[in-house]
Write a structure and sequence with these properties.
The chain is 36% helix and 13% strand. It contains two helices and four strands; from the N terminus they run H-E-E-E-E-H. Strands 1-2 form a two-stranded antiparallel sheet. Strands 3-4 form a two-stranded antiparallel sheet. The chain is elongated and about 85 Å long. Bound molecules: zinc ion (ZN). Belongs to the bacterial ribosomal protein bL32 family. This is Large ribosomal subunit protein bL32. InterPro entries: Ribosomal_bL32, Ribosomal_bL32_bact, Ribosomal_zn-bd.
């Protein structure tokens, strides 16, 4: 197996590892609901990204409400 010709000094290893540290995620404010959201990610509160309803949470919520209403009407009959 290949072997390194010379031993690596601790300074060289340290210099290489100086770029390995994890950086804190950049947080931004959702322009729609003002929640704190990681940048370049869909807002988990309202499902909006770049002005578009990506997850269609509002549509799903409306559909849920409509279904509930229908069920209530059925039980009342
Ligand atoms: Zn949002």
């Amino acid at each position: 197996m290949a072997e390194p010709k010379k031993r690596l000094t601790s300074a060289r290893s340290g210099a290489r590892r100086s770029h390995l540290a994890h950086k804190a995620k950049k947080l931004t404010e959702c322009p729609k609901c003002k929640a704190v959201v990681p940048s370049h990610q869909v807002c988990s509160k309202c499902g909006f990204y770049n002005g578009n309803d990506v997850m269609e949470l509002e549509k799903k919520e409306q559909a849920k409400a409509a279904r509930r209403k229908e069920e209530e009407e059925k039980t009342n009959e």
